[in-house]
C-alpha cells in the first residue's frame, strides 16, 4: 500500500497501538514546514504528531497562518490506526467479533501477509525437521 510522502511523522507507538508523546514538537513541525516552504507549499504537506502533544504547541506565526489558510496541515493522532489511515487514505479496519478484518482495510492486508509468512515458516520448519530426521537415521 503506498504511503503518502508529503506528511512527516514523528512519535512512537506502544504495544497497544497508542501514539506516545514526544519532545521538541514545535521544532519538528517548524523544521518540516521550513523544508516544505523552501520547496513551495502546495496545500498537501503536513506533519503528524501525537495528540497528547497538542497542549505543547507554540508555533511561529507563519506556521499558524499557513495551517489556518489550509496550505500546511497538522494531524494529531491517538493510535497507529488513525495514522495509517491518514498516510494511506484507506481505512485501517477494526477487528470483527470473529477475529477478522474488513476485506478492504489495511489491517486485513496485514493479517493476510502475516498468515502467508506463518505458512512459509511452517513449511520451512517442516523441511528442516525432515532433514534432521533423515540425518539422525543414518548409520
Structural description of this entry:
The chain is α/β, with parallel strands linked by helices and 139 residues long. It folds into two domains: 1-89, Ribosomal Protein S5, domain 2; 95-139. 45% of the residues lie in helices and 12% in strands. A three-stranded parallel β-sheet has the order 1-4-5, with helices on both faces. β2 and β3 form a beta hairpin. The longest helix is centred in the last third of the chain and has 31 residues, at 106-136. 17% of the residues are buried. The model has no long low-confidence stretch (mean pLDDT 93).
Tell me the strand order in the biggest sheet.
1-4-5
CA radius of gyration is: 22 Å
* SSE ordering: EEEHEHEHH
Provide mean pLDDT, rounded.
93
Salient structural properties:
elongated; two-stranded antiparallel sheet; 2 domains; Ribosomal Protein S5, domain 2; three-stranded parallel β-sheet; 139 residues; 45% helix; alpha/beta; single chain
In short:
By secondary structure, the chain is α/β, with parallel strands linked by helices. It has helices spanning 25-39, 61-68, 80-88, 106-136, and strands at residues 7-9, 12-13, 19-20, 46-50, 73-77. The protein has a three-stranded parallel beta sheet with strand order 1-4-5, sandwiched between helices. Strands 2-3 form a two-stranded antiparallel sheet.
